[in-house]
Amino acid sequence: MLLPYWLKNYKKSQFNGDLVAGIIVAVVLVPQSMAYGLLAGLPPEVALYSSVLPLLLYAAFGSSRTLAVGPVGLMSLMTGATLIELDISSVNEMVSTAHTLALLVGVILLMMRAARLGAVINFLSHPVISGFISASAIIIALSQIKHILGLSLPRGTPAYETTYNILTQIPQSNISTSLIGVSSLFLLWWFKSPLVSVLKKCKITDSVIQLASKSGPLVAVAIGTYLVYTLSLNTQYQVSIIGHIPAGLPEFILPNLDPNLIKLLLPNALLIAIIGYLESVSIAKSMASQKRQKIDSNKELIGLGTANIASAISGGYPVAGGFGRSMVNFSAGANSPLASIITACLVGITLVALTPLFFYLPKATLGAIIVLAVLPLIDIHSFKHALSYDKTDAFSLLITFFTVLIIDVETGIIAGVVISIGLYLHRSSQPHIAIVGQVGDTEHYRNIDRHQVKTDKHILAIRVDENLYFANTNYLEDTIMRLVADDKEINHVVLICSSISVVDTSALESLGDILYGLETAGVKLHLAEIKGPVMDKLKETDFIKRIGEESIFLSTHHAMCSLKGRTN
Amino acid sequence: MLLPYWLKNYKKSQFNGDLVAGIIVAVVLVPQSMAYGLLAGLPPEVALYSSVLPLLLYAAFGSSRTLAVGPVGLMSLMTGATLIELDISSVNEMVSTAHTLALLVGVILLMMRAARLGAVINFLSHPVISGFISASAIIIALSQIKHILGLSLPRGTPAYETTYNILTQIPQSNISTSLIGVSSLFLLWWFKSPLVSVLKKCKITDSVIQLASKSGPLVAVAIGTYLVYTLSLNTQYQVSIIGHIPAGLPEFILPNLDPNLIKLLLPNALLIAIIGYLESVSIAKSMASQKRQKIDSNKELIGLGTANIASAISGGYPVAGGFGRSMVNFSAGANSPLASIITACLVGITLVALTPLFFYLPKATLGAIIVLAVLPLIDIHSFKHALSYDKTDAFSLLITFFTVLIIDVETGIIAGVVISIGLYLHRSSQPHIAIVGQVGDTEHYRNIDRHQVKTDKHILAIRVDENLYFANTNYLEDTIMRLVADDKEINHVVLICSSISVVDTSALESLGDILYGLETAGVKLHLAEIKGPVMDKLKETDFIKRIGEESIFLSTHHAMCSLKGRTN
Prior knowledge:
The structure is a homodimer of 568-residue chains. By secondary structure, chain A is mainly alpha-helical.
């Protein structure tokens, strides 16, 4: 039998860590996944179903040992937005559409694997991702305030409208709900940090501290549920509760495969797949590098793809690796995906036996759990860093951030990608062009504006710090012709190609034009330090025949020595 | 008074050339512009109006001495496609929409000047332009076959549908029309080349040969008109004719400024403006470089912008610099924009006095004029060249070509731009990374796979041939970590930055990760040949503080000498 890589060499000593981590993650996952279901506008059981089979499939096919797969904030937000876009009102239809969406996400991920398109996430720059995640976290947190305060607001409005709605409707808040919501927020915060300090002072062992501090959501859920039940807050004070969750394990479902529905869902499914993959891979990589393990991007696509298909056919919605839970898993000592299998079993037991306990669970508590989970994702540090290091990147970050907030998540991420690529191309369309001279008596040539160098008044040696391609050929041509026109003593131009790895067809034509222009002006063009792969392509061209082999030098120094004193 | 640059130093000796060129261009322009009007689906007088005032405005504000502005094939095709998209049936409404379109094109060009966005055309690579023009030429030629054969086909169908329609309807051709059309084609071809050889043998002076060979369209028009008139082909054999053209100079018109119409036209106007500007600038540049004159791209935007606004308010449609006529103007000896002013006056005289002569002009002759004018634009050489030099460029060319043919002109050019940028980014996302060694006893270091070099088994010196930015940071990180993992003897990694001009925020984070990864593996990272502008940005960062100043070397040689023998 083909066992997963981690099972072949499983050591008994690893089991303890896996068991503890599996239990702690389950304690976090059960309330959190119900909360994320709420965020996506789906019944809680859909989110719980997404927390069983997908975990097992990822354990079998994924490449990260510690990634905790399941419902996550971003995917829930995007799923919810997709369902709102389609304007579906019946809950049954929303649930069935969510299954189809998960299936599409899974199939897209597997197809990305087949077409070797995993590298597409390389085009999401860090600043764009940071702006996207920060803005999404704000949208997610804002969307939960209505649950925390017991308001009824329309779903899926842009962030500024949600804020406006909240501010104008605060007087209509439900007092009981608000009390539960705000106390839950306080309780969750207290478990996150002050409790740990207290326990540390009492010299409790680390794994107990871990378990205690991560059980905040479960404690909040227990207290909230107990209060609603004993005080009948749901009937007497209109506190919203979760209500009936059908008991039992998820059943096999064939998702709706209506071609029209698939066509409608496809663009969003593509984006959800890319974002889910991106999130999972970055988390997995950062954990793996700390333990010197390896992440195989291709395996990740298969792991996540099968996990999403598993979610689709077992009544769930799109899943990915979650940041918070993965960190819990990792720091609680998980050694292998066995931890996730244990988690999945515990969620399964919950589904079979414990769902009646959640009947009186107030939505305000779930809202508070989401808010506390996403707030750490608002990343001001990255913005400050980008601002001080590279204004262009800070600009991409801001554009993404505000487009997500003002328009929506999909437009925001597309705007971010377009802007960051556009700015990169703009930068490379006006490359840095340096005039260089000899440093002392070395064979080294550097920028005359920055170093003490020797030059020859008849030889213009210039270095272009960029590939030559369609976007910058005009700029290069204009610059060289201007430099030569400005200095009549120049007889030779040496183009130093050390930074040039690509010369495309447009640039080749431009080089021909430059050669022709210089010739008619009585100036000879030479090339130095052409890289191997570039020369391989150039050597068959007319351009190289016209410029002549004697004008092509291995190094700038060779060129300068050979041209010195020659007057054409 | 502020005179145009060329009028200040006008020399008497220039006048002769201007006069001859002005007359020859007018002889070409009058029939050609009526033909382009037909192509755009507009009455002939609209095209003639576009050939008066715009020429004067370009003469006043443009920067090319010899660019012949007026109706051109591409703009007429795109204008026609825009009118079909809007589904306008009344001729009056089409004409008024064409005025608005010209106004928008003019305003967009002036705004591009104001926002310094002229460089946007740099993102159209030569292969994309070539594919676009070739496919457009085929579409234009195909669209005229119905006029040449006297068929009635729907307008604006994709090229394959037009071809299918033509082939199935050939039996319904109008014999008289076909005879006129095919003989016109033959006559025009004969004037283009065999006539010139005959005249050259008779030792006629060059300017007379020029005039004679360029009067082909006029002769075809005269013969066609005469035949229709004397044989009453229009009434007896249903040959389509131009009909009544109102006499008199264009009058001032305020274009329709309905905001809804403007919103509808805007995307197409933007594309027409960019294509018109691109076409004009490339023609102007290629002529200017032959006479060592200069083209100022900013002035071109103003010249073309005002020409289009002039066209809009004098009853015309979008104009640009035409390739064919500019070449005629140039080779007929035009020295200054005075030639264009003479052309405009002659077109004006035609409008005032000669329009009745065109009543019986058969549309078949105009169709033939267009076909002969656009066929030379089909550019197979560029495709062959791209195919042999750079498959990627050949691919962009083909994608653009077929998208234009199969879908439409706008989609084609957008697809071309997206594909060429995507392919460039893809290429730069997997940069060439070379391991280098010392060439002989020089200070020069080159690729170990291509040169006979010396290396040190404890030092890995690698050169990355690309900027470090978001799209390739993962690739760099993976490559370095793999190289170090594969060779346990390596103690030092020297990253040679001679090709690196940009290190963006994402790449900076990646460098930090690489440094951390190497440190934990017991390997020290060093940088060599960092360029000035890159170092300026890096020196304030944590990364440089962590790597330490002693690990930053001016040249690879310094690095190698200093590290040799050190064992950490």
